[in-house]
Amino acid sequence: MVKITDVARRAGVSPSTVSYALSGKRPISEETRQRVEAAIRELGYRPHAGARALASSKSNVLALVVPLRAGLHVPVMMEFAVSVVTTARRYDHDVLLLTQEEGEEGLRRVADTALVDALILMDVQLHDPRLPLLRALERPSVVIGFPASGAGLTCIDLDFKAAGEACVEHLADLGHRVVSLVGSPPEVYVRQTAFAQHVVQGFTAAADRHGLASSIHPCEAVPGGARAVAERLLREQPALTGVVVHNEPLLEPLIDAFEQLGLRVPGDLSVTAICPDELAESVRVPVTSVALPSVEVGTRAVELLMRKLGGEGPVPESTLLPPRLTERASTGRRATP
């Protein structure tokens, strides 16, 4: 294992100079710093995490708080987590993943220790009880999601309201007059999870703006859930010709259920979704969708956090990524009698 003394020998400096170059505690010349960095690269030296933390008063660890609550689609949440971890490594930081539903207590437990330098919060509710504490913490933080009030926070996410609007706008442009949103499981709405609420707001606003008949149907992501909601929709809205899906596990089962009930996609029924591109492309009938930019959101959340940790000037409080709708085979013009 390469030691700091090996780096010092290769760079022609003392071990303490290497330590100063790593910690920044004392100024050294640019020429010396470059020699030390070159020796580190050549030898593949990596400072011991504990020693590095003691030297810099930092842990070089970020906390990613993503409680795996009922109703969340875990594969999508993990896409965000992987992006955060990958980007953090580019900045020589590790990530502590916190998945328990501990609320304020868990947040305080981590923040009150030297375990982490900063925090990223996911699965945010409109009136999230963790946010007052987050605002009061001295440690920098970034929130993936937009609560009812983002004052005093740094928030980033897809513009889910605009995503809901984009799906309805697309259906309206194709002549559809009766539309429905098949949404997340009921418990997601009961908790007032922010992204799900924003989709509803956008769906409703766009439907009202175009004078469309519309309805919203939360749906459990369980076997039989797709068939049950399809039957209910056709019973309550027999003129239905457009559907927006915001429930990833139900996407293909829902298309199958409608076709088993006699509706061809897209001949009789156009289907749009808010989901990862990979999922939309893999369905038997490729689905017109607004992409979930999990990689971009995770990457930019870490970049915002690094700017805050580095004191690199002001950081925007709000970063809303515009929706990108890709048209595929699941939507077409409304069939006229």
Q: Which characteristics define this entry?
A:
14 helices; 6-stranded parallel β-sheet; 12 strands; elongated; 6-stranded mixed β-sheet; 337 residues; alpha/beta
Low-confidence stretches: 50-56
SS-based structural class? Answer: alpha/beta
In order across it, which strands form the biggest sheet? 2-1-3-4-5-11
Biggest beta-sheet profile: 6 strands, parallel
Run of helices and strands? HHHHEHEHEHEEHEHHEHEHEHEHEE
CA radius of gyration: 25 Å
Distance between the termini: 76 Å
Taken from the alpha-carbon principal axes, the silhouette is: elongated
Q: Helicity level, as a percent range? A: 40-55%
- Please report which band the strand proportion falls in: under 5%, 5-15%, 15-25%, 25-35%, 35-45% or over 45%: 15-25%
The overall strand count is 12
Mean of pLDDT: 90
Number of helices: 14
Describe the protein.
It is built from 14 helices and twelve strands. By secondary structure, the protein is α/β, with parallel strands linked by helices. The radius of gyration is 25 Å and the shape is elongated.
